[in-house]
Amino acid sequence: MGLPHISRSGSLYRSLRRVRSVVIIAGKRLSAVHTTSYVHPTAKVERDLVADAYVFVGHHCEIGAQVRIGRYTMLAPHVTVVGDDHIFGVPGTPLQFTGRPTQTETVIEEDVWLGHGALVMRGVRIGRGAIVAARAVVTRDIPPYTVVAGVPARHVRHRFASPDDVRLHDAMLASPTLPPTFVDPVRFLQSGPCAMAPLASLTPKGGGYDQSGSALVKGPWRP
């Protein structure tokens, strides 16, 4: 007999998640990370990381020094913040011996989504509400609510359809932190009529996607 299912929308899950986060944050000595945020145990994170409420850092992320992350931002697995490591324009001196330039802060603002394996070069600013596609390489600042992809990352589209949508979202981000509404991950069926069905056909009404791109569900299937 397996363990009972705990709904992610319930208070018990939120309490357990908070305890887990506090333990991980304390173990990594991340004194400037909000206790509602989650940093996966496998993530390699410098101790000076500053992260506001409900930041999610996925497994095997690597975050260098002087990084600041705003509320609600999600880093999918294997996201990396690196770069600005060596001065390379000194003739007659090996790279290992040239030293490092002055380090600058990397800022990832509120409600940003960094896709799987995205790489962010140190010192850039990613504006609020932006989305960075999987495997993209961010080499320059990204304006708010911009969707970027590619190497180097380039503008693909705007996140919202109209200025009114942007104003509505800005008002939400300017308000106090919202209570969380986590959703349960989809568990694909191993047999039966829905087995091996395409993802699009299994995506539930009212659902969405988690930090790694997996479908989420708030209720029963709607094939």
Could you explain how this protein is built, in words?
- With 223 residues, the chain is an alpha/beta fold.
- The chain has 2 domains: 18-88 and 99-180, UDP N-Acetylglucosamine Acyltransferase, domain 1; 183-223, no CATH class.
- The chain has helices spanning 11-28, 163-174, 199-202; strands at 38-39, 44-45, 50-51, 56-57, 62-63, 67-69, 74-75, 80-82, 106-108, 113-114, 119-121, 125-126, 131-132, 137-138, 146-149, 154-158, 184-185, 208-209, 215-217.
- The strands form 4 sheets. It has a 7-stranded mixed beta sheet. A 5-stranded parallel beta sheet has the order 2-5-8-11-14, with no helix packed on it. It has a 4-stranded parallel beta sheet with strand order 3-6-9-12, with no helix packed on it.
- It is globular and about 65 Å long.
SSE layout and pairings?
Layout: H1 11-28, E1 38-39, E2 44-45, E3 50-51, E4 56-57, E5 62-63, E6 67-69, E7 74-75, E8 80-82, E9 106-108, E10 113-114, E11 119-121, E12 125-126, E13 131-132, E14 137-138, E15 146-149, E16 154-158, H2 163-174, E17 184-185, H3 199-202, E18 208-209, E19 215-217
Parallel strand pairs: 1-4, 2-5, 3-6, 4-7, 5-8, 6-9, 7-10, 8-11, 9-12, 10-13, 11-14, 13-15
Antiparallel strand pairs: 15-16, 17-19, 18-19
Summary tags:
223 residues, alpha/beta, UDP N-Acetylglucosamine Acyltransferase, domain 1, 2 domains, 19 strands, 22% strand, globular
- Average pLDDT metric: 84
Count of DSSP strands: 19
Main β-sheet, in a few words? 7 strands, mixed
CATH architecture of the largest domain: 3 Solenoid
Unreliable spans: 196-223
Rg calculated over all Cα atoms: 20 Å
What do we call the CATH topology of the largest domain? UDP N-Acetylglucosamine Acyltransferase, domain 1
> Taking strands numbered 1, 2, ... along the chain, how are they ordered across the largest sheet?
1-4-7-10-13-15-16
